[in-house]
Specification:
7 helices, alpha/beta, 5-stranded parallel β-sheet
Length: 166
C-alpha cells in the first residue's frame, strides 16, 4: 500500500534536509515533492499566485506518487489554511492509515539558527520573520510535532520507523 509522509514547518526548520534523508533511507521508488521546487522553480510564482498555481500541480503529483511510488514525501511550509484542499485530497488518495504527518514545532530563534548553517541561501532573517506562522497545525491531519531537542538523524529515524521502514 502506498504511503505519504508530510513534513511541514516554518522556513529553516529542517524539512528539506529530513525529506532528502528519508528519500535516501527508503531507497528507490520514493518520490519527494518539494513545495519550494514546485512553486518557485517549476512554476516561478510567489505569494497568493503561488498558492493558486501550485495547489493543482501538487495534487497531481500526489496522485502520481500514489499510483507509482511506494513512498511519497511532501515537504514545505504549506500553510494549513491555504493547502487544506491538498491535505483532504491526500487523505482521499492514501487513506488516514497511510498518511504520516509531521510538523516542525520550533521557536523562531531555532529556525534562524538552523538556517544559518546552510550555504548558498538567498534570504535572511527579515524574510523568515515575514513568512513566520506560529503554531500552524493542520485540522485535517493529525501531526506528530518535531521539537528542537530532536536532531536531524533522530527525526529521520522516528519518521522512518513510524512510516513502516524496515
Amino acid at each position: 500500500m502506498p504511503k505519504l509522509i508530510v513534513l511541514r514547518g516554518n522556513s529553516g526548520s529542517g524539512k528539506t534536509s529530513a525529506a532528502i534523508a528519508l528519500q535516501e533511507r527508503f531507497g528507490p521508488n520514493t518520490m519527494r515533492v518539494s513545495h519550494d521546487m514546485v512553486r518557485m522553480e517549476i512554476l516561478h510564482v510567489w505569494s497568493r499566485l503561488g498558492v493558486e498555481k501550485s495547489l493543482p500541480l501538487m495534487a497531481e503529483l500526489l496522485e502520481y506518487g500514489h499510483e507509482n511510488s511506494e513512498v511519497t514525501i511532501l515537504e514545505g511550509i504549506l500553510p494549513a489554511e491555504d493547502y487544506a484542499p491538498l491535505f483532504r485530497r491526500a487523505l482521499e488518495l492514501f487513506g488516514r492509515e497511510n498518511v504520516f504527518a509531521y510538523y516542525y514545532d520550533l521557536p523562531f530563534e531555532e529556525t534562524l539558527r538552523r538556517h544559518g548553517t546552510k550555504s548558498g541561501v538567498s534570504f535572511g532573517e527579515e524574510d523568515m520573520r515575514r513568512w513566520w506562522l506560529e503554531g500552524d497545525y493542520l485540522p485535517v491531519l493529525e501531526e506528530t510535532r518535531l521539537t528542537p531537542e530532536l536532531s536531524l538523524e533522530e527525526a529521520v529515524e522516528l519518521i522512518y520507523r513510524q512510516a513502516g521502514g524496515n
